[in-house]
Amino acid sequence: MRLLVVGSGEMGRWFARASGADAVAFTDTDPGVAAEAAGRLENATAVPLETDERFDVVCVAVPMSVTPEAIAAHADKAEQAVLDVAGEMRDAVAALRQHADGLERASFHPLFSASNAPGNVPVVVDEPGTTIDSLIDALRAAGNDPFETTVTEHDEAMRTVQAMAHTAVVAYALAAEDVDDRFHTSVSEPLEELVETVTGNTPAVYAEIQQRFDGADAVAAAARTVADADREAFERLYRDLETR
């Protein structure tokens, strides 16, 4: 299998390694990034964005806000399948349907940073086939757990597990005061670790997640409910959570 990876950052490199491809070509808006990615993987090369080469598979691994544009620009370089690893399904799958008609199509979302691989990978298979099947098998062989989902199920889940979760962690970090580490509890200590995890990654990625999936208003409203609750209401909130 000959694979073209459009976007040579962390997730593009991860997919290239996990795909089981026989040969990989990296391309990027920054040729230096593509060259550096190719230098870290056997049987890999760097090609210009404007290449007229064709490949068995094209993987789009760019920020979600420009994924549809990248699919439109590069889908015609694929002979068998086009996929993305953007982390957003609605717009990505719509672009795949429009620009990769007649090809196998899928949208993958690794729910981890590349440094924490392997992990869970929800997949929307929009047009199945043996090539997509082989890629899913390769991800599974690399220790990942790919599982099929739908566009709606995925994007609604991301509102909770990403946008709301990130909002809650960042809000805690903004509100928390600096304390001696010896005071931390079994609740606050893990929260501090989550703050380090969230703030230790790329802000632009988190900003795109917040913009696409929202969730901040719901968390803010829930925090206000807690803040306004008297003792009886507070206890009732806890009991309601216990029965969820």
Describe the protein's topology:
Elements: E1 2-6, H1 10-18, E2 23-27, H2 31-39, E3 44-46, E4 55-60, H3 67-74, E5 78-84, H4 90-99, E6 104-108, E7 120-127, H5 130-141, E8 145-148, H6 151-175, H7 188-199, H8 203-213, H9 216-228, H10 231-242
Parallel strand pairs: 1-2, 1-4, 2-3, 4-5, 5-6, 7-8
Antiparallel strand pairs: 6-7
Helix pairs in contact: 3-4, 6-7, 6-8, 6-9
Helix content: 40-55%
Per CATH, the class of the largest domain reads Alpha Beta
Number of helices: 10
* C-alpha-based Rg, rounded: 21 Å
> Strand portion, in percent?
15-25%
CATH topology name of the largest domain, in short, is Rossmann fold
Q: Domains counted in the coordinates: how many?
A: 2
Element order: H for helix, E for strand: EHEHEEHEHEEHEHHHHH
Number of strands: 8
CATH superfamily of the largest domain: NAD(P)-binding Rossmann-like Domain
Strand order of the largest sheet: 3-2-1-4-5-6-7-8
For the largest beta-sheet, the strand count, sense and barrel status come to:
8 strands, mixed
Low-confidence stretches: none
Please give the CATH architecture of the largest domain: 3-Layer(aba) Sandwich
* Outline type: elongated
The CA-CA distance between the termini, in Å, is 47 Å
User: Structural class of the helices, strands and pairings?
Assistant: alpha/beta
What does the average pLDDT come to? 95
